[in-house]
Amino acid sequence: MTVTVQAVPMFSDNYAWLLRDSGTGAVGIVDPADAGAVIAAIDADGGRLDTIFLTHHHGDHVAGTDEVRQRYGARVVGAAADAHRLPRLDLAVAEGDTVPFGGTTAHVIDTPGHTRGHIAFYIPDGEVLLCGDTLFSLGCGRLLEGTAGEMFASLHKLAALPGAALVCCGHEYTQSNARFALTVEPDNLALRTRAAQVDRLRAYGDRTVPSRLQAEMAENPFLRAQDAVRLGEIRAAKDRF
Ligand code: ZN
Ligand code: FE
Protein backbone atom coordinates (compact mmCIF):
# COMPACT_ATOMS: atom_id res chain seq x y z
CA MET A 1 0.00 0.00 0.00
CA THR A 2 1.47 3.33 -0.94
CA VAL A 3 0.55 6.91 -1.71
CA THR A 4 1.44 8.44 -5.06
CA VAL A 5 1.45 12.14 -5.96
CA GLN A 6 0.66 14.10 -9.07
CA ALA A 7 1.31 17.81 -9.51
CA VAL A 8 -1.63 19.98 -10.59
CA PRO A 9 -0.30 23.25 -12.06
CA MET A 10 -2.36 26.34 -11.20
CA PHE A 11 -2.10 30.06 -12.01
CA SER A 12 1.37 31.14 -13.15
CA ASP A 13 3.58 29.07 -10.83
CA ASN A 14 1.50 27.32 -8.12
CA TYR A 15 1.06 23.58 -7.61
CA ALA A 16 -1.73 21.68 -5.93
CA TRP A 17 -0.85 18.01 -5.27
CA LEU A 18 -3.21 15.13 -6.01
CA LEU A 19 -2.67 12.19 -3.63
CA ARG A 20 -3.82 8.65 -4.30
CA ASP A 21 -3.77 5.79 -1.78
CA SER A 22 -3.31 2.65 -3.88
CA GLY A 23 -4.69 0.38 -1.17
CA THR A 24 -8.11 1.96 -0.77
CA GLY A 25 -8.45 4.28 -3.77
CA ALA A 26 -8.75 7.27 -1.46
CA VAL A 27 -7.89 10.59 -3.10
CA GLY A 28 -6.59 13.77 -1.50
CA ILE A 29 -5.70 17.22 -2.74
CA VAL A 30 -3.24 19.65 -1.19
CA ASP A 31 -3.85 23.42 -1.47
CA PRO A 32 -6.69 23.48 -4.05
CA ALA A 33 -6.49 27.20 -4.83
CA ASP A 34 -7.70 27.06 -8.43
CA ALA A 35 -10.99 25.15 -8.27
CA GLY A 36 -11.22 24.76 -12.07
CA ALA A 37 -7.77 23.21 -12.45
CA VAL A 38 -8.22 20.97 -9.42
CA ILE A 39 -11.71 19.76 -10.40
CA ALA A 40 -10.46 18.92 -13.91
CA ALA A 41 -7.62 16.86 -12.43
CA ILE A 42 -9.88 15.05 -9.95
CA ASP A 43 -12.56 14.30 -12.56
CA ALA A 44 -9.92 12.97 -14.97
CA ASP A 45 -8.79 10.67 -12.14
CA GLY A 46 -12.26 9.20 -11.48
CA GLY A 47 -14.10 12.01 -9.72
CA ARG A 48 -13.44 10.95 -6.14
CA LEU A 49 -12.07 13.23 -3.42
CA ASP A 50 -11.86 12.29 0.26
CA THR A 51 -9.57 14.81 1.91
CA ILE A 52 -8.41 18.38 1.31
CA PHE A 53 -5.12 19.25 3.02
CA LEU A 54 -4.26 22.94 3.55
CA THR A 55 -0.69 24.08 4.32
CA HIS A 56 -1.40 27.77 5.03
CA HIS A 57 -3.99 30.49 4.63
CA HIS A 58 -2.71 32.40 1.58
CA GLY A 59 -5.21 32.76 -1.25
CA ASP A 60 -2.91 31.12 -3.80
CA HIS A 61 -3.20 27.94 -1.67
CA VAL A 62 -6.78 27.91 -0.36
CA ALA A 63 -9.02 30.02 -2.63
CA GLY A 64 -10.81 27.06 -4.30
CA THR A 65 -11.30 25.05 -1.11
CA ASP A 66 -15.02 25.63 -0.49
CA GLU A 67 -16.01 24.99 -4.11
CA VAL A 68 -13.99 21.76 -4.24
CA ARG A 69 -15.28 20.63 -0.83
CA GLN A 70 -18.90 21.13 -1.91
CA ARG A 71 -18.54 19.32 -5.21
CA TYR A 72 -17.09 16.12 -3.71
CA GLY A 73 -18.13 16.26 -0.07
CA ALA A 74 -14.50 16.07 0.99
CA ARG A 75 -13.35 16.97 4.48
CA VAL A 76 -10.91 19.81 5.02
CA VAL A 77 -7.81 19.53 7.21
CA GLY A 78 -5.77 22.56 8.27
CA ALA A 79 -3.89 24.23 11.10
CA ALA A 80 -5.81 24.81 14.33
CA ALA A 81 -3.58 27.85 14.90
CA ASP A 82 -4.96 29.51 11.75
CA ALA A 83 -8.55 28.23 11.86
CA HIS A 84 -9.77 31.86 12.08
CA ARG A 85 -8.34 32.73 8.67
CA LEU A 86 -8.57 29.41 6.82
CA PRO A 87 -11.67 28.06 5.03
CA ARG A 88 -13.95 26.13 7.43
CA LEU A 89 -12.04 23.14 8.78
CA ASP A 90 -13.47 19.68 9.51
CA LEU A 91 -10.26 18.69 11.24
CA ALA A 92 -8.04 21.30 12.95
CA VAL A 93 -4.55 19.92 13.55
CA ALA A 94 -1.18 20.76 15.10
CA GLU A 95 2.34 19.33 15.49
CA GLY A 96 2.36 15.61 16.13
CA ASP A 97 -1.23 14.96 15.03
CA THR A 98 -1.93 12.23 12.51
CA VAL A 99 -4.58 12.51 9.80
CA PRO A 100 -6.15 9.27 8.57
CA PHE A 101 -6.03 9.10 4.77
CA GLY A 102 -7.33 5.97 3.06
CA GLY A 103 -5.50 3.07 4.66
CA THR A 104 -2.63 5.22 5.82
CA THR A 105 -1.83 8.38 7.76
CA ALA A 106 -0.36 11.83 7.21
CA HIS A 107 1.75 13.32 9.99
CA VAL A 108 1.39 17.00 10.83
CA ILE A 109 4.53 19.12 11.30
CA ASP A 110 4.29 22.74 12.48
CA THR A 111 6.50 24.83 10.18
CA PRO A 112 6.14 28.52 11.13
CA GLY A 113 8.24 31.13 9.34
CA HIS A 114 6.45 31.93 6.07
CA THR A 115 3.23 32.31 8.07
CA ARG A 116 2.63 31.75 11.78
CA GLY A 117 0.28 28.81 11.29
CA HIS A 118 2.02 27.10 8.36
CA ILE A 119 2.01 23.30 8.57
CA ALA A 120 3.53 20.52 6.48
CA PHE A 121 2.22 16.97 6.04
CA TYR A 122 4.42 13.90 5.79
CA ILE A 123 3.05 10.56 4.58
CA PRO A 124 5.51 7.74 5.37
CA ASP A 125 3.74 5.34 2.94
CA GLY A 126 5.19 6.70 -0.29
CA GLU A 127 7.56 9.12 1.50
CA VAL A 128 5.57 12.16 0.43
CA LEU A 129 6.36 15.56 1.99
CA LEU A 130 3.79 18.29 1.35
CA CYS A 131 5.60 21.43 2.46
CA GLY A 132 3.66 24.34 0.95
CA ASP A 133 5.68 27.56 1.06
CA THR A 134 8.16 26.46 3.76
CA LEU A 135 10.69 24.46 1.75
CA PHE A 136 11.02 24.99 -2.01
CA SER A 137 13.33 23.16 -4.33
CA LEU A 138 16.63 25.05 -3.89
CA GLY A 139 14.87 27.69 -1.78
CA CYS A 140 12.60 28.49 1.15
CA GLY A 141 9.56 30.68 1.70
CA ARG A 142 9.72 34.38 2.47
CA LEU A 143 9.63 35.31 6.15
CA LEU A 144 6.28 37.11 6.02
CA GLU A 145 5.19 36.42 9.60
CA GLY A 146 8.11 34.64 11.21
CA THR A 147 11.73 35.00 12.21
CA ALA A 148 14.81 33.40 10.71
CA GLY A 149 15.02 31.34 13.90
CA GLU A 150 11.53 29.94 13.36
CA MET A 151 12.23 29.14 9.71
CA PHE A 152 15.56 27.53 10.66
CA ALA A 153 13.79 25.28 13.17
CA SER A 154 11.03 24.45 10.67
CA LEU A 155 13.49 23.55 7.91
CA HIS A 156 15.43 21.35 10.30
CA LYS A 157 12.35 19.40 11.28
CA LEU A 158 11.84 18.67 7.59
CA ALA A 159 15.54 17.86 7.14
CA ALA A 160 15.18 15.08 9.72
CA LEU A 161 12.77 13.16 7.48
CA PRO A 162 14.05 10.29 5.28
CA GLY A 163 16.30 11.43 2.43
CA ALA A 164 14.12 9.69 -0.12
CA ALA A 165 11.16 11.92 0.78
CA LEU A 166 9.55 13.61 -2.23
CA VAL A 167 9.57 17.38 -1.69
CA CYS A 168 6.16 18.49 -2.98
CA CYS A 169 6.26 22.27 -2.62
CA GLY A 170 3.76 24.99 -3.48
CA HIS A 171 5.52 26.78 -6.33
CA GLU A 172 7.63 26.31 -9.45
CA TYR A 173 10.39 28.65 -8.25
CA THR A 174 13.32 26.30 -8.83
CA GLN A 175 15.01 28.09 -11.72
CA SER A 176 15.21 31.49 -10.01
CA ASN A 177 16.14 29.74 -6.75
CA ALA A 178 18.97 27.96 -8.58
CA ARG A 179 20.35 31.25 -9.93
CA PHE A 180 20.41 32.69 -6.44
CA ALA A 181 21.75 29.49 -4.83
CA LEU A 182 24.74 29.61 -7.18
CA THR A 183 25.66 33.03 -5.79
CA VAL A 184 25.76 31.49 -2.28
CA GLU A 185 27.61 28.28 -3.22
CA PRO A 186 29.26 28.83 -6.61
CA ASP A 187 31.57 25.82 -6.13
CA ASN A 188 28.85 23.31 -5.15
CA LEU A 189 29.10 20.75 -7.96
CA ALA A 190 25.83 19.01 -7.15
CA LEU A 191 24.09 22.38 -7.25
CA ARG A 192 25.72 23.34 -10.56
CA THR A 193 24.66 20.04 -12.12
CA ARG A 194 21.12 20.48 -10.81
CA ALA A 195 20.91 24.10 -12.01
CA ALA A 196 21.85 22.99 -15.55
CA GLN A 197 19.22 20.23 -15.39
CA VAL A 198 16.60 22.73 -14.20
CA ASP A 199 17.45 25.08 -17.07
CA ARG A 200 16.93 22.24 -19.55
CA LEU A 201 13.58 21.29 -18.01
CA ARG A 202 12.33 24.88 -17.97
CA ALA A 203 13.43 25.44 -21.57
CA TYR A 204 10.70 22.91 -22.46
CA GLY A 205 8.28 24.25 -19.84
CA ASP A 206 8.61 21.04 -17.80
CA ARG A 207 8.18 20.70 -14.02
CA THR A 208 11.27 20.65 -11.79
CA VAL A 209 9.46 19.22 -8.74
CA PRO A 210 9.11 17.08 -6.74
CA SER A 211 12.76 16.71 -5.85
CA ARG A 212 14.18 14.31 -3.24
CA LEU A 213 15.01 15.63 0.21
CA GLN A 214 18.52 14.17 0.02
CA ALA A 215 19.19 16.27 -3.11
CA GLU A 216 17.92 19.38 -1.31
CA MET A 217 20.29 18.61 1.59
CA ALA A 218 23.20 18.68 -0.87
CA GLU A 219 22.04 21.62 -3.00
CA ASN A 220 19.65 23.95 -1.14
CA PRO A 221 21.57 26.80 0.60
CA PHE A 222 18.68 27.45 3.00
CA LEU A 223 18.74 23.85 4.26
CA ARG A 224 22.53 23.97 4.35
CA ALA A 225 22.78 27.17 6.46
CA GLN A 226 24.55 26.23 9.70
CA ASP A 227 22.49 28.48 11.98
CA ALA A 228 19.55 30.87 12.09
CA VAL A 229 21.76 33.96 11.66
CA ARG A 230 23.22 32.63 8.43
CA LEU A 231 19.77 31.56 7.23
CA GLY A 232 18.52 35.11 7.90
CA GLU A 233 21.42 36.58 5.91
CA ILE A 234 20.76 34.30 2.95
CA ARG A 235 17.00 34.95 3.07
CA ALA A 236 17.58 38.75 3.13
CA ALA A 237 19.99 38.46 0.18
CA LYS A 238 17.39 36.43 -1.77
CA ASP A 239 14.75 39.11 -1.06
CA ARG A 240 17.06 41.65 -2.78
CA PHE A 241 18.14 39.28 -5.58
ZN1 ZN B 1 2.25 31.51 0.87
FE1 FE C 1 2.27 30.51 -2.16
Keywords:
241 residues, alpha/beta, binds zinc ion, Metallo-beta-lactamase, Chain A, six-stranded mixed β-sheet, single chain, 14 strands, binds fe (iii) ion
What does the model show?
- This protein is of the alpha/beta class.
- The chain is 35% helix and 26% strand.
- It has helices at 35-44, 59-62, 65-72, 148-159, 174-184, 189-203, 213-219, 221-224, 228-240; strands spanning 3-10, 14-21, 27-30, 51-53, 75-79, 91-93, 98-101, 104-110, 119-123, 128-132, 135-136, 139-140, 166-169, 211-212.
- Strands 1-2-3-4-5-6 form a 6-stranded mixed beta sheet, with helices on one face. Strands 7-8-9-10-13-14 form a 6-stranded mixed beta sheet. Strands 11-12 form a two-stranded antiparallel sheet.
- Strand 7 (98-101) and strand 8 (104-110) form a beta hairpin.
- Helix 5 (174-184) runs antiparallel to helix 6.
- The mean pLDDT is 98.
- The site of zinc ion (ZN) has 5 residues, from loops.
Instruction: Kindly report the name of the CATH homologous superfamily.
Output: Ribonuclease Z/Hydroxyacylglutathione hydrolase-like
CATH topology annotation: Metallo-beta-lactamase, Chain A
Global outline: globular
Bound molecules: zinc ion, fe (iii) ion
Quick one: biggest sheet? 6 strands, mixed
Short description:
The protein has 241 residues and is an alpha/beta fold. The protein has helices spanning 35-44, 59-62, 65-72, 148-159, 174-184, 189-203, 213-219, 221-224, 228-240; strands at 3-10, 14-21, 27-30, 51-53, 75-79, 91-93, 98-101, 104-110, 119-123, 128-132, 135-136, 139-140, 166-169, 211-212.
